[in-house]
Amino acid sequence: MGNSKQKLYLGAHMSIAGGVFNAFGHGEEFGCDTIQIFVKSSNQWKAKPLTDEEVQKFKEEQKRTGIKPVVAHDSYLINLGSPDPALLEKSRKSFLMEMERCERLGISYLVTHPGSHMGIGEKEGINKIAESIIWLLERTDGFAVKIVLETTAGQGTNLGYKFEQIAALIEKSRKPEKLMVCFDTCHAFAAGYDISTLESYEKTFEEFRRIIGLKKLAVLHLNDSKKGLGSKVDRHEHIGQGMIGKGAFKLIMQDSRFKTIPKILETPKGNDGRMDDVNLSLLRRFARSKKKK
After folding, report:
1. What residues have CB less than 8 Å from 75, skipping those under 6 apart?
2. Structure confidence at residue 291 as a pLDDT band (50, 70, 90)
3. Does the N terminus or the C terminus of the chain have fewer Cβ atoms within 10 A?
4. Residues 138-144: contacts with CB under 8 Å, at least 24 apart
5. Cis peptide before 69 (omega within 30 of 0)
6. Model pTM score
7. Which phi and psi angles does 84 have, rounded to 5°?
């Protein structure tokens, strides 16, 4: 169950079927220290408002299990960079609703793939996403929840696959203190950032430090990659069974810089989520194995 003296801030994305509060029971089953959830159905634009009872049960379950922090991930329907005015408005309003739900539940981080330019070009796409972020922050003044921009694989017209693009969005937001970053291992690797060896791992995170800043790193998504370095294909694989390999995950789990950063698994769950058990157990073993000098 992962009962350990040292909290590893390790967990996985958990289902909210039947209510957001149910995610804690699932996380507890697999010994999670932290979890990631959707705050509404991920494949629908709208959602019924959260009731006071749901919010109370969520907070009670969090207290009972001790699972924290909880990280939220936005709906995949949302595109804050859409050149289509109707879709852009829908995306902004939906994301605003998710921010409001996070605020009610006491969730500090809402992770999002920055957006896709859909053919208008990367520069225009970045500007469009920045405008959306400004729009959102203007309407959530005083909120504790922060927008967490996730590194992407660069598949299709997806933006956020270069550290420079993430840094530009933070700078253009007018409120950089309200933005944080999620480093996804699969996405970064597919985008061309090698972390498979000690040398390349150090080089990648030095680049991250120089361009974005390690203080901006709020969440780590731990996923191996089905496809190769620089493939720009977003396909998650079980830890150590993909093109990245076990070494990178051992380095992350033993990196003192990331000791208190939530590390979230987003790998295929298999039957009854049992692959979460396999992957989490492996990562715990990496954390507790002695570092090689």
Report:
1. 38, 40, 41, 42, 43, 44, 45, 94, 98
2. low
3. C
4. 139/96, 140/96, 140/99, 140/100, 140/103, 143/99, 143/103, 144/103, 144/106, 144/108
5. yes
6. 0.96
7. -85, 115
Whether the pLDDT of residue 1 is over 70: the answer is no
Residue that is written with structure tokens 């987003």 in the block: 266
CA 174 to chain centre: 22
| 3-state class (DSSP) for residue 284 | helix
> Which of 53, 123, 128 lies closest to 87, judged by CA?
128
Summarize the confidence of residues 278-283 as an average pLDDT: 98
| Structural domain range at position 210 | 10-288
Q: How many domains does one find in the chain?
A: 1
pLDDT, tens digit, for every residue of 28-70?
Answer: 999 999 999 999 999 999 999 999 999 999 999 999 999 999 9
In a domain, 4, yes or no: no
Inform me whether the pLDDT recorded for 97 exceeds 90. yes
Cβ-based neighbour number of residue 190 at 10 Å: 30
| Cα dist from 216 to 148, 202, 203, whole Å | 9, 17, 18
Q: What is the pLDDT of residue 116?
A: 98
From CA 53, how far away is CA 244, in angstroms rounded? 43
Residue 46 falls in which region: left (phi positive, over 0), alpha (psi -120 to 50) or beta: beta
| Mean pLDDT in residue range 81-96 | 98
pLDDT of 280 > 80? The answer is yes
Domain holding 23: CATH number? 3.20.20.150
Q: What share of residues in the chain are helix, strand, coil (percent, to 5)?
A: 45, 15, 40
Cβ neighbours around 254 below 10 Å, total:
16
User: Is 5 a domain residue?
Assistant: no
Looking at the domain assignment, is residue 64 inside a domain?
Answer: yes
- Give φ, ψ of 214 to 5 degrees: -65, -25
